## 1
Amino acid sequence: MQWSCRGEEHDVFYRQVKRLQTILVSTDSMSNVPKNIEARRRITFFSNSLFMNMPRAPQVEKMMAFSVLTPYYSEEVVYSKEQLRSENEDGVSILFYLQKIYADEWKNFVERMKRQGIVKEKEDEIWDKGLQELRLWASYRGQTLSRTVRGMMYYYKALEMLTFLDSAAEVDIRDGRELGSVSSRRQEGSSHGHGRDSIGQSPTSSRTVSRVNSDVSALFKGHEYGTALMKFTYVVACQIYGSQKAKKDPRADEILYLMKNNEALRVAYVDEVEKGNGNEKEYYSVLVKYDRKLEKEVEIYRIRLPGPLKLGEGKPENQNHAIIFTRGDAVQTIDMNQDSYFEEALKLRNLLEEYNRHYGIRKPTLLGVREHVFTGSVSSLAWFMSAQETSFVTLGQRVLANPLKVRMHYGHPDVFDRLWFITRGGISKASKTINISEDIFAGFNCTLRGGNVTHHEYIQVGKGRDVGLNQVSMFEAKVSSGNGEQTLSRDIYRLGHRLDFFRMLSFFYTTVGFYFNTMVVVLCVYAFVWGRLYLSLSGLESSIRNEADSTTNAALVTVLNQQFIIQLGLFTALPMIIENSLELGFLNAIWDFIKMQLQLASMFYTFSMGTKAHYYGRTILHGGAKYRATGRGFVVQHKSFAENYRLYARSHFIKGIEIGVILCVYASYSAISKNSFVYIALTISSWFLVVSWILSPFVFNPSGFDWLKTYYDFEEFMNWIWCPGGISVKSEQSWEVWWEEETDHLRTTGLWGKVLEIILDLRYFFFQFGIVYHLHIASNDTSILVYLLSWICILVAVVLFVVVSHARNKYSAKKHIYYRMVQAITIVLVIAAVVVLLKFTKFEFVDIFTSMVAFFPTGWGIISILLVFKPILKRTAMWDTLRSFARFYDVLFGLVVVAPLAVLTWLPGIPEMQTRILFNEAFSRGLQISRILTGKKTHTN
């Protein structure tokens, strides 16, 4: 197609026609499509993004300069040889895991090593000759700093190539490609010792070869080298890099290796210098780089700080001290577990041009960027988390930006207007505790000061997420606690007063409102089951049933059970369905949703709802949010019962047991429960919540239903329960230390927090008050005397427990016969009392179990209320008794939790089904997940 005259109005149309022509005349066959799933995904997204609406990119020399900032503390930089080879308790090493998960990429890597002569016959040779390449290959598939640096340095490589393309004519590009191929062929032939090139062409003189090499160098190593350095800087804020160098930490050498191989990389750290006799210290913010001419690390800047750096939260403090070393008009904040791709780096010029466009009445000050979660490819749990995150970072944030206009800063891929933010308080707030979720406060600050936040879908950054249930729960605990602190912050208060009504509603639901509503849903479940329990025990339910047959009132049943659809996680999954419909098509989205339900996604999302509600509510009541390190390793190993109990006892297990006991009592005394269908319809959602909260940590735990592991896990749990505490003992070793840490928030809470805690704990006493009047020994007596006599029974039980506990502590070690004697006397007295009651009263044997259901919650309520007065009681002798009671209850809770687990592990076929559910994605891809779980590696001789 020839254009004799083409004006500016035809430029856009001409470019589209050229693109269409290129697509139509392409002759590539389908056999050239990559087999690797990740490669196909990247090509697909890049191809689709080219048709999206994006600004036209300027030449590199005219583009905005920008920097990338990554906070780093002490995470993995490059996996060491020992880390790659060391095996966990199941006999699985990191390298073995990667070889099975990325089997095609490992095969390609070995082929490259053979082509380079590093591996000749056996793959084991790579440990001797290609160790560095092996370490990097593994590190690029984990959540390491080296992976992040490699991804961000694609910006530099892309700018170098784009600078060359900007200044080169089409004939220069073609000549450079031809000269480059001639040079490579010549070098390949010379490496094999031949005078001619390897494909039989005429011999090339040394003068021709030198001309080829110089021309290629001139084409590809010209002024683009300096231009790329002027336009891009990458600063990694390695806060403790100075102390790591002083301690000869291997991480310091690995960071230096990254600087050697990435010229645009700069490292900022805090240097502590002793002053005078060593009693005082001076603190400096230091920026260093690697000088290739001097072949050593050199300082660029050294700025003295007024005092220690870490006064607030560590991560924002780390960012704040390093942001002064960034350059240019924009700064992109990238987390330590993120990645980028070369094809996405090509579009950064387009993204920066967004600053010159008006969105509404203002130009943007914060550019939101799409994320791709790259850790959701193996386990079902990782897939659930990936799907949830993907729907939020794509569809969710797109809607928040336009039309709702309430998008904030939720994570690290966003691009800041550097000068705008530096002059308005920076990109991070670092106040202790209140800014535990430091990211979103940058968005609050931007909105309050008149900034404009946008979101753009045509460019993406890779993101690693937590892949194990314990990691996911700790992450959600941190985020939920952070939202609790946000609710108490003045930023939310100011935004609530300044936003218009509709933006205020949108802002509420998309920030703290989501967690507040989740807490309300859980509280509604509590109100529902406690209300039903009150109706049954008080007799009101029977009287109502006599007046109007509620068993046929379908409308009432429907209204009372509306929370079921919420608890199933259907509403949580709705954004995923919509996002997958846009990305994959409606039928594929529905099929993915069905597969998620078959893989027990509803259990996971219900469990996640409990995590959010617990930690958000605790932070609202007591404050004290804290950073929880989640870890970024590969999670395929089995987690012990004791570890799961430590993490979920207070947030899920106790609450699940409480609701389960309420439902059992309701089934025993409710008139409606005689109609099985109505009882099931009323309580099935609550039972589903109980099962999810108690069994989810084991359902989503590799080998969670293995009989031997369950047996040894419970044995370890009992050893942990009885292990005494001490100064140097950690919570992972002793129950006493864990219990002290778990109740520490009650020590620092305020007056209203203590009052509300006591009021909430009073609910446990209702069990006793309601059930004792239904005992056979009560003979339908409704006087207060029955309730008072029940307290006497509790007092007697407490005295007997204290006597036995005191005898155990005093005589069990040296005079064991005395301890056994006390136990025997106690048992005899209890049996005698039961016999007397059976003989002379209307007491029946079943009343023993009914009394236990009534009295055990009362004991837990007493313990919970006394813990509110922990600072006072800790100085008295009563503290040891209280601790003994609390230990007894934790043993009891452990037995209740392990009982259904033991039944499921005993049933045939359950372990195999659980493995299939948990690793269905791996089975679908033909991965040898069973070998990873069992650690049975085959060795070839």
Note: Confidence is low (pLDDT under 50) at residues 1-6, 182-220, 936-941.
## 2
Amino acid sequence: MRNIRKSVCVTVLSLVSAGLFADTKTEMKTELYKPDIPVALRAPAVPLILSDPYLSIWSPYDKLYEGNPQHWTGEEHPLIGALRVDGKTYRFMGKDAPCLSSIIADEAPSATGTKEYWKATYTFNKPEDKWTDVNYEDITWKTGKAAFGTSDMPRVGTRWETKDIWIRRSFHIEGDLSKETIILQYSHDDVFELYLNGERLVKTDYSWKNNVLLTLSEAQKKKLKKGKNVLAAHCHNTTGGAYVDFHLFKKENRHGFDTEAVQQSVNVLPTQSYYTFVCGPVELDLIFTAPLLPDDLDLISTPVNYVSYRVRSLDEKIHDVQIYMETTPQLAVNDLSQPVVSERLEKNGRVYLKTGTIEQPITQRPGDGVRIDWGYAYLTADNGKNKDLNIGDYYEMKKSFVEKGTLLPEKLSGKLVSNLSESIPVLAYTDRLEKVNKEGKTGYLMLGYDDLYSIEYFYEQRLAYWKHDGKVDIFQAFETAASNYAEVMGKCRNFDTRLTTDARKAGGDEYAELCALTYRHVIAAHKLITDREGNLLFLSKENDSNGCINTVDLTYPSAPLFLLYNPELLKGMMTPIFYYSESGRWNKPFPAHDIGTYPKANGLVYGEDMPVEEAGNMLLLAAAISEVEGNATYALKHWNTLTVWADYLVEKGLDPENQLCTDDFAGHLAHNANLSIKAILGIAGYGHIAIRAGKKAEGERYIHQAKLMAATWQSMAKDGDHYKLAFDKSGSWSQKYNIIWNEMFQWGIFDPAIMQTDIPFYLEKQNTYGLPLDSRKEYTKSDWIIWTACMAPDKDTFQKFILPIYRYANETTSRVPLSDWHDTVTGKRTGFKARSVLGAYYMKIVFDNFLNL
């Protein structure tokens, strides 16, 4: 009966996926610009333009116009939008940069025309108290030129390789600044504090940011005195690169978009983010669409997004309307010190704005908190006589729109070379909608990125999947996107509605909104390519936790989303790990943690192995694919490798030695009970694959072994009213999320009483923002809470685990793409952001599909 049940289960899962994509021919609905399902969740960051780890732009604000959108690393990737109505301009997106001039004499341009960086005194040794005061004696300190940082940082004038640095920058003020707007600009990596004449102006957490602007209050401005002043800063480097730079400016008058629109709503759905604004007498609807549909590998890999808009009159009158949107070459650089070249070109009757670095170091910048600096960003639009695209001066382009509703009339010819640290050109678009009534007018533009080559895969640069080995170029991709606009928008809308409906049925409104928030987040943490043999490779980047590529213990938690919607993508994450072992490049009896640092997939870079962790992960994922597909086809391609890993777990998995596991931020742990569960179920999973492959005796032997180990586990882990974190630590506890495979597939390896005991115990340990990961700390991993919650006895109990996670996402002050690692007491991010592990959130849908047969 076992095989019959699984064939039925595969049919159910297939129907769920088929249902999501059935309406491929559906015409675009009339009401395109409002979501089918309103969303109450306040996203910590709203996904705007997403395709892969490099093209990943978010708004970390409640209102789209409160600040500039950012790359997930925190660097600005500006998108600015304005609507001109009857001659009055309203800014609805981003925030145009103020025109600044230095108030400190040592920042005047040098004779060569380049900026002369400032000098300051500094020390690496903790100074005495009052080191921030104007009259503090710093004669024993060294003198150096800004910026201060490690050698990998931009414009470093003084090397800083220690944990801490203290800096004092003295300057003189002669004129009256009382009527000026004074702005502090600072960059830091990591923990930073800055003082003006002894008063603290800035105190940060451990994150790093560049070119942050802080307008001084009237009280802070009064600290500036005629004569000597001191800016004093301390920065602590937690790990990796280190950097400090800061300046004081006054704001100059300029033409810009000062009047803000009034945002009415924002709704985040799986592939689209919807905004509505009121701009005087008209309403503006704005949609950001990333067509990451999992059944269409071309769509999911093509780096082109749509920005759609509709403007309607609210007062029955006709209004003269023009819309403006822009971006900058910042989309194509890692830092502002890199010279760029921009051009306006025409291809097949369509105008494109193109920008990228001069250097073009293709795939040559591996790392975590970095941005792409090769390839080219493009902005284009649907053709139309009232549409215009141009490249020009940052302030003059806005002035032209404010005064006339048009871009600068003189079109850029040839190529414009720019140094972004001195001036930033804009890539601008306008649509002269002209007479707008209550029926409204619509349009869209497209923003995309051609990375030329995407990944260096074992020392060979590989093209993105959508290029089909060079048969398709970026211009063809844009033409296809334009031709299919209505169809794709309809597909995205249907997908969003059905996914959200399925998630709501499985886990309730709050759960559905969490799934909607995380869909693009997860998909865009990967890049889709093929190897020489044509095998699909779907390579993750370990965003904000070290930058590794194809990390196995990211693949494992992310798997539910791909088991549900396209197991081929999950195979694409596993195939490189199999290849690494089977090619002879990796010869240990367990899988590698990763295959490099993104985008270089040339072999392991992680400093320490996770033997039991990664072996259990790969075996369980292979078993899950077998369960979903109802066959052993994929596993049999790698049978010898899987056998080696299964035998390793038989020998080493029951009582793991002191080693790292996926929760490695908590450090090493021996006798890890949850890790032991993973090992035991990995062995059982191998056994079930073997039976499905016709190897009945072999399969039964491994399943029997797993059952024996599980019985021993239960006696070792039991600790009164719960089960231990580690076998040798009485009084400890941890979430046993790994047992979910046993519950979902009904393997019968572990006693159901284990989770029946632990679930009520967990509920007593919950804090305001969730269940801690274990008894060691108050922080948690929300991906694992979802898995734990799936094993609750009923929907009401499931909700008791979900609502604190929803509260965290809705209330956290950590305005980043949702972090999977947060403090359950404060609701603040402990670490990590924009990581693919949130694919784990989809486990409840998968879980229910298997059990509700």
Note: The radius of gyration is 28 Å.
## 3
Amino acid sequence: MRKTVLLSSCIALLPGYCWAAAEPPKALNESTVSWQGKNWQLIDEEGVFVCEPAAAGGRQVLPPPNRPAGEIISRRGWDTPVKCRLVDFVDCTQTDHGFEDDGKSRVLDLPGGKFRVTGAAKGFELTWFAYTVQTADRAGVPHLVVVETPNDRERYTTVSMTVPKGEPWSPPYAGQEAVKVNAMAISQEPLWYEPDVGLAVYTGRELPIDDKPFTFQYVFFPKTAKMRLIVSSSGWAKPHTPESGGAVSRIWVFEILDRLADRLPKIDPPNGRQRHVGLYATHPWYFLAHYGVPPHTPEQRRQSFENMCDLLAFCGMNLIEFNAINGSDRAGRAWYPGSYYKQLGADLLSELPPVAEPRGIDIVPVVTSITAPGKVEGSKPNQYGFSELSFQKHANPKADPRAFEHRPPDPLRQETQRWLIKHLVEIGKRCRQHKNVIGIGFRANGKIGTCYISGEDKSSGETKVYSAELMGYSPWNLSRFRAESKLPVPNESMEAYTWLKADPKRWDQWLDFRCRHTREFWIKARDAIRAIRPDWTLYVLTDLPSEVTGTNVDWPGADSPDAEKVTLDLLRAHGYDPRMFKKDKGILIQRVMMVDMERFFGKWGPPWGSNPERYRDYHEQEFLPDWFRTPAGSATELYHTYWEEAFHPAGEFGPDAKGFGLRTSTGMAKGRSFYRPATFTLRAGDTDTIAINGWQRPVMGHEHDLRRFCRAVRALPTLDRHTGVGQGLVAESKPLATTPADPKRWAARYGDRIAIINDRDEPADLTVKLDEPLPPGKQLRDLATGHVLIKAGSGNRDSFTIGMEEYDIRAIAVE
């Protein structure tokens, strides 16, 4: 447990200072600052992106950022900004720019002005409108799209980019779109050129409504002189009203003029092992598809990787986890040559690490959930050792749960373990020379495999979802358990399940049996990669328990007195008991937090749509982060649910007979609520690795404010525990004066660094009382903003005051 602190509100903000720029800027009004003799319009609420103020008035004028310029400077500090040039503007109340829709969009008077709103979709219906926007006609040069939308009700507004049909590649890659490629062979998608990125932003429900418009923005790398921008929405909103739908008033497209590599945030790392903040990519094809560059030659691919790594470093990130064995979340293809699986369109093991290393980015290749190789018939093993005995068996012999139509291999079988370890070793030998490859990983996915799964059974004509506790009842499983336990386990699988479940002691022995042998499996995997490089860590990227039905049906909810016990048994049913790894070195077990899932599945029928709030509540149980900690540290994956929209006019997986198809984007909550799972896992678990996952690039919409977040996280030392650290650190909160502590507003000392976390949805000005007076020659500096909180030789030496945003983290240096 951490040292408890109290919090108090401050009277006034302390002055900041300009830590990267040559002179302090001056706020002229809500949106404009004067800096180095010139006026600049702030585009975002961090002051990261700027442009020249519009010469004329009208709707083309950018609105003020979501916070006033003066507040941005005083609370966030001032770094050298990134200059942008406006290249196009769309007034969405008009029908120019090649406007097109499904016949259902309308212009409505909403709080804050006029907005074009998609049709009020119901259920899985998708409604949309589209414009064609101009770019700078320079392929691979980063751009910024800024979108104005209302915060008046629960809404879901997706803004996606697509290359218009027949549009040629911009210079310097003119004509590259005509190169003939086998799209499925290089990408596992039928369309390798046209689909690009998309971001879905949602409002309402637990997010405050203020009836004010706001802007969101994201970086994209256009391939062509024109891009098709599609605004879409489906029937997620509750309640459904005639005014429901995705809504946009205005759109701005900027060319980013400064090189992102020249505007990296200043990171003040501590001594010793560093924390990591980065992304986990389940579909690495997007390393090539979304950075404006063709994928045909090694030189082109290197430029794509440079664009991507420059963007991640610009955000402050230092980690990439990716599926080296891929196949849309299950093993089917490889991102390197020489594997059993056919190679996709790059050798990421040799091409990516040399690009990431000089940018300070570490790499972890991952084997996704494995499938059985070759043709399997009967009980005779095939050439890879797999037979009918190799698969997980449901307790009911008539049931046939699968993962995307694949029968899941049994993780306790030796052929399953050999097959996974073979690929871990194969990957390890190919990238052991790269010092920034810090480990090898595999995926243990409660829905898909390399553990016991909660599978979908479609054999009867209707889809049934079974709990993981019903899997793993083959005659081999039962006979092995019978021999070890000396229990008279029935031979028939359903009878055995019923008999084991009827007695809590027997059931505990059964789950313990599965988990002990799973641990032995993981230890063998660790030892195999450490035989190649002893400094490597085995990363086990868990997605446990299965979200359906594990977290939303089988788990009884946060208010249940049995919530903790059920949580443990759900994990153990998949074969993972976190208590067994507390002394195992060299294994980092990455915990998943499902994000946005309660929104996405809210419109679905049972079991997916049952108790949708539990998708989030399960992962915010206070005890969970520490369960997953091992001597190698604590890691958390923030898994943004794949935001799938069927019947999209620019489907990325090919059109149906009517020209529509499935399109997937990255979903995000409005504003700083994006950081809610991050501040939770930092506060409750002191996690030292955060990997953000999304079907597409999951930093979209937060390229500007991730910089300050990553500065803070990466400035903090890594510790096994807070116990004994920060003795006597006390703070007090005036709004909570009658309460001894607010556990969600927290501070602690790490030697010469102090961490402060506001894990609430409201900002706060917090006063922190030090454990001992600051020596006269020392100062306190906020490493996220550059603000000096206590100057050397002056001021109050016992406490300091700091302004915290909602869901915020700061790192303070004693120097």
Note: The chain has a mean pLDDT of 91.
## 4
Amino acid sequence: MDLRVKSILPKPPVKQESPSMQNKRRSDAGPPSGDYNKRQRSVPDSTRHFSVDSDGAHDSPEGSRPAATGHRPVTSCTFCRQHKIKCNASERFPGACSRCEKMNLKCEIDPQFRPKKGSQIQTLKSDVNDLKAKMEVLARNEKLLVEALSHSQLPGYQSQSQFLPASTDSPGLFPEINDINDSVPNTLLPISSASLEPQPGPTDTASYKEPEYPVLSEFRLGDVVLSAEKASALHGIFVERRLPYLPIMSTSSANTLYHQSQLLFWTVMLTAALSEPEPQMYMSLASLIKQLAIETCWIRTPRSTHVVQALLILSTWPLPNEKVLDDCSYRFIGLAKNLALQLGLHRGGKFIQEFSRTQVSLGPDADTWRTRSWLAIFFCEQFWSSVLGLPPSINTTDYLVEHARVDHTLPKHFRCLMSLSIFQCKLVNVMGISVTRPDGLMEPSNRAASLNILERELDRLRFKLEIDDGSPVEVYFLYVKLMICCFAFLPGTPIEDQVRYVSSAYLAATRIITITSQMLRNDTHLVELPIYIRQAITYSVFLLFKLHLSRYLMDRYADSARQSIVTVHRLLRNTLSSWKHLQNDISRTAKVLENLNIVLYTCPEVFLPDSIDTGGGIISRMRSHLTASLFYDLIWCVHEARRRTQEKSSSRPQKPAIDDSVFEQRNCRRPVPLPFYNQITKDDFKTITTTTPNGTTVTTLVPTDHAMNQARVNATDAKRPLEINGITLAMLEATGSTREPAANPDMGIDLGPEPGASGVSSAAPAASPGLGASGVSGVSAGPGASAVPSPFLPYNPTSEVADQMDNFFQQQSHGWLNDYRDDDFLGWIDENMVQE
């Protein structure tokens, strides 16, 4: 019954297979007549396969050929079968196929191998997962490995942290990226990957033992080689003269610093080289360090606070640059900020392990130096944003920045600088970040009230901080005060509101010049000062230049302002002759002043504001660069004067006559050029700096004995008047320089009447510029002036000196009048500076 029922039931439908699937199953199952058990018994026979290496060696467990299984023999290797490519393994047997031999793979013919769909992607995913798992295991065991190796004190382990030496005991020439100790290490080094080791706290600082490093006899970077003695001397100069301005690190020796961070070491050497009498080493290191910084920071993300510190130092003492756009300091600050955020410096040392397990050890006070590095980033960001006239990218404070106000563990001057930078950030946020105007400024009618509140707050802050007189902190305080004044001088501000800040700006600017002049008396070069002091000088002299041309500056201040401008120019230009070709912010400021002086001589009407459009304001044309609009406004004047002068020379080839009608219409006098000399050096001139009772700094040039002897020889041979570097002695005396009698070098020097006592007459000829405090008629050389031999006296102070001055200014203006681009201070020429 069961059998009959079973036979009646319909058979289940059989799934139709494609011919390819049938062939595949036929080849997989063997003979079609065999059942499942037979196929299972035939498997052991088919497992006997052979493989051939790329070198031709082969193996076979039971002979050279597998046992016959009744299907088409396999003639392709497993690699070619998987990738479905043509294979010649059978033709080249017993050697490997052409593809496996080319790719250096093991050529294997396996009849049991079954190609799988998507196996390549799956294999790659498996490999990636395996690598991730192995990396997690290594990272988890890193702490144990570092602790074990550090306790064992293996002698060979310490030597792994140095570079492959060029000689037996010196570092290599230029390190490869994998060897730079600021980058992520490939091996576990005590300095580069000991971040998981608990950092010693304040209580165990005495028990902290600095790692021992091999003592190197010389240090090499490119073609620059420093002996150990020279490196130690430069290291001492940096610690003594540079580090107090930016206390963000601690270093005990040059050798230790080199092993901790190569970029920081060479940055320290570069900055200390500013004190050298010759600039060769500094110039050689500058280009190499820029390349080293790029390779250290861009190719790999360094896990080192030392790199952040190096970038901060390079931003505080910038690398040589000719134009504003060539200065990479602002980019270094942005890079340092991004690295600091990734390293967790903005959270201090408490949460440092939440950001990275492979940070560089900074010693027993690691939290202190990480915190100070972040504070320095905030300070430099605010400063450089004000220099370039850009809104700061860090426009809010955080816990560490706010805590710096009351953190008395910080050095006093650094704590004061942080407080001033916090106020500076607030000032820009209030006055320069607006969503209601396209220029980003506050409404002109509301500026006076806000600036009045901010100025009172700044004065209270000075009283609270107890800023020392004559200190760098006072210079920066006055710089911030000048920023308040500049916001008031921007276009659109009512004139009555601008006038309130004119005297305040004058007093702050002259005070900055006086303080910095006193800093330079102790054999300190201007280039050695940090950029935030040098920028304060630059900003002061530019503002004084604007103010002395303004009708709102009181007459008793006008001559003093001119004297201060001349003093700054002489500070900028009177450097060592070997350093005079260095291009940086100092040379750029001097060049801008000289070009502005040429504008005073050739096209002074450019400085007259258009009363219809600008209301006669102090800053009349630029407004979108915040407080840096002052600098860009002056640059506009240089470009515009150059354009007008070229138009006049093309239409009238002869020398254009001086037209004072435009000044008479404005009821103002024609401005007189200033006695600037770009040929002065410390080798030829000594400077005597004196501060008058009203705070004006007067700098007097005194030719050296060597310069005078050389001038006599040249004058005798050429039968010409005495001159030094193209400047005649008569013109020097007529513009405020003095003569130093050989018989009495210690005599008193009469610097002329007090500023305001006698000014430059409005009728003074344009070709005879006077020196502010004294007129063109000259400055008394002191009681011993009558004893000076006759060759020192000018030949004709009334006519010939005026001609010499005229020729001198013509010669100075020769560059840009002849279509040279000496006035391209920004990195772009006046095709982008269209006339409004």
Note: Strands lie at 50-52, 58-59, 107-109, 218-221, 224-227, 685-691, 697-703, 723-724, 727-728.
